[in-house]
Amino acid sequence: MKSQRITLLISPEDKRRYRSLAEDRGLSMSELMREAVRTYDVNTIDDTRELAALTAEMRDAIPAMRKSLRSANSSVERALASIASRQAKR
């Protein structure tokens, strides 16, 4: 495969940061950029949408979860009170 050049305009600060990252990893800046693009992956957009949908679903479920927890706590408190009452009668 024949290589082609892409010109990327970045700030001097970003260039220093990317150069440092590349050096720390023993890579050229070009290889660091190629790896970053490969790692980004197009599926990231779909993952973000799925995460947003799951977050909305969780938000909708929270009121019912809270109600269920309150009910469970009440049941435990009644059971503990009943046990304490029985023990006090002994």
Features:
90 residues
Characterize the structure shown.
With 90 residues, this protein is mainly α. It contains 3 helices and no strands. The longest helix has 47 residues. The model has no long low-confidence stretch (mean pLDDT 91).
Q: Which helices and strands, and how do they pair?
A:
Elements: H1 12-25, H2 29-40, H3 43-89
What is the global morphology?
A: elongated
Largest sheet: none
What portion of residues belong to β-strands?
Answer: under 5%
Q: pLDDT average, as an integer?
A: 91
Strand tally is: 0
Report the radius of gyration as a whole number of Å: 29 Å
Unreliable runs: none
What's this entry about, in short?
The protein has 90 residues and is mostly helical. The chain is built from 3 helices and no strands.
